[in-house]
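Subject: Protein entry, chain in single-letter code together with its fold tokens

Area: Proteins and the way their chains fold up in space.

Attached in line: The record itself begins immediately under this heading.
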Amino acid sequence: MDSIAGVRKFSLFILLIGLSMIGSGAAAIVAEAEPAVAPKEVMVSDYEQFQTMLKQSIEEAEEKGQKEIFIELKEDPNIVQPADMVEVDYTVVDQQGQVVYSTKEEMFARMDERYADLFGQSGKATGAETVLAGFAGLFPGIGHAVLGMHSGERKKTEVTPEKGFGAREEKKVKAYSRRRVLPKIARLTVNSYLENFKSAPETGKAVNFSTYFPSRVTGVQNGIVTLESMAADGKTYQDDFGAATVSVQEDSVLITLEPLIGAIFDAEGKRGVITKKDADHFYVDYNHPLAGTNLIFDVAVHRLQKFSEFEKIQIPWNIDNNTAMALAEQENKPVVLVLYAEWCHWSQRLLTNTFRDPRIKRFHDRFVWLKIDSDKEQVYKEIFGQENYPMIVLMNSQGDILEKIGGFQDGGTLALYLENILTGKTLAKAIVHAKQQSTASSQHCKSAD
């Protein structure tokens, strides 16, 4: 480890709470022996205190040439501290007092329509949520909002963008031309045609070469497919983000876009909002709608469980399928199966981060836990239809599949799946809210990597 400042900042937090999670590109080492330097004892109850303590400890260690820092948190049984697990209800409002999100049904029903598409797609409130204090929750900022609170306490606290949806970045505002020119006659290789249209080219066949009008195959020769536009001159097409008018010219087709301000625009795998337009361009803001916004959290802590309650709990992994399934049937417990690959960093993050999260550890005796390297034992990859790594399969005690979850999952998200399996519920769509509008399913390794 070459640099404490460059590598250890996140890892130190994991070290001091007894977890060996790793951040992206960083390694965490949990010492098995007694530290050569006496541990530094500190008491922290909020995010700022913790960050200040870490910065000071890193600077002191660098001055002394130390490569490791040992920190012990003084545990206060009555106060929410980093890595404690708390059960909370909360309502989030913006600076105008409009409801952004709530775990409570009565407040969820009052959610402002501007936020309904972002946070209300489940159609109902989740109910009390289990939060890992100091870490990102299902709603960004809640993990910081609970720090310093007591069990049974209710309070309102303001959360800054840095602890919520992040600062607004101008570089995330992109400009697009309002005019697009397509050739009237297009030529593709046969392979490219097959890849795009999933069928063999036939003369006279119409295909959707453009979003707004079809093209007709006029010939196939020497591995080249020729397509001729069937665009209707002057026709206007309605789109989700506005309208498009087609103008057929001698050798090309001109598409002129008329975007609507405030409309959703999807491009390059991202979702943004059209914020303005001029004669030549329109502008899409890919910042999260709440980026740069201070939010007010009304939080009630129902239950506090200190990290020390979970520190020594280990997930009792099985590595043999037959043994695990026999145990599940014998004890009438559902099964958590992890299909992973050793070389996949998302697999390693799942096993070393997520399954050491107290929100997952609390279920250690409620499930049978099975992990299989399906990169080496390919038969399991085929059985469960696995395309990428990692993959989590949830089954009942008889081995029937209840849920298949692709990609890396954080502790909060996976905990919801597990809780819903135990209660017989189905995980509602779109209840997980990330800082960026992306999904955990993109956090995976392709089989060919």
About this structure: The first strand starts at residue 40 and ends at 42. The chain has four domains: 4-73, 85-168+292-307, 173-285, 310-446.
